[in-house]
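Supplementary Note 3. Input sequence used for the single-chain structure prediction.
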Amino acid sequence: MPVWEIAKLALTTFRTNRLRSFLTTLGIIIGVMTVIAIVSLIQGMNYEVERQISSLGSNVIYLQKINWGMGRIDWDEINRRPDLTVDDANAIARLPIIERVAPLRSRMVSRLNYRNRKVTSIEMAGITPIYATIANYTIETGRFINSDDSMRKRPVCVIGGYIVDNLFPDEDPLGKRLNIEGKSFTIVGTLVRKGSFLGQTQDNVLFIPLTTFEKSFKPQGGFGALAHDLAIVIEPKKNVPVEQAIDRIRELMRRRHALGYDKPDDFGINTQETLREIYKNITRVAFIVMIAVAAISLLVGGIGIMNIMLVAVAERTREIGLRKALGATTRDILYQFLLESVFLALAGGAVGILLGIGIAKIVELTAHLRAAAPFWTILLGFGFSALVGIFFGIYPASRAARLDPIQALRYE
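The predicted structure, written as discrete structure tokens, is reproduced below.
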């Protein structure tokens, strides 16, 4: 029997028992839907994370007291580590393989007010003029922090788009004064917006000269003290591999901290690759959960398909006997029921793919998380469905194919 006739026969069977067919494929629908939805969201997040990591600058190295993603943190050991200094930054800048170095300190500002308006949770950083180049910040209006501001410890600031939108929606912020924890700062520039990352704005930033920061603000308690510690952002020259630059920086810092050969580093060297590894570890958990949910759902769906196909074989025993009596071979019957099983699974897979893409789009619109369903995920959904249909359809199909035509025709 041609494939299209078998497909037509299968569709007729499905239409005759719509509710039973739907319930049978429910497990496959849930399994495929879960895979497509989670893969779409993770893939979308992958694009977004890579874009954000790349926006930090190319081959940028971060020297801090702490290592990113170091697992359980021994805060006592971290607190015993010596603070990094501007002299450390200057020593690194003198290395012939280094292009730029930007020391900075930061803290969270809980609230900023201007007239009757306010913004909360602002990230303030004390920086040097070179920071804008390393961190890929661009001025929209006014100017960035300059050397004269740093040398004279001027109370000036540059603000991000989030602050502009909320405090100065209908006026020019340049020249206006902001009160930051009791100290007055003049706005000299605004930044080009970077947009949101994982639903959080990146434009809630405020930059002031590093020298002004050190003169005006003391360390906060808890995590604030760690943020206040000096961090050094380093950009190697373009023809220098990051690994080579890290080795030279580590050698220099160990010498400056007088560390013996058997002593571990008392500083952390972090790169964009560190961020990628942290992100991969997070998404790895999501993939494991996805695989577990999908495997259970597909197993349930496969058992349902086997069950309905066994029922179909029992209900159509006389039909099988008649077809065999008219010349159908064992292989014809085997292929017929196997293809019916595969079509049933593919139908469930198609519904699951549509629902999975729909769920990913809903999450994208409501939670502002980017979703992307690459073509390979759709092939993956159909592939899993077809495998389930084949695996769980073999037994009912072989049982139908082995029926004796005479006994089948006598079946009541």
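The chain has a mean pLDDT of 83. Residues 27 and 300 are 5 Å apart (CA to CA).
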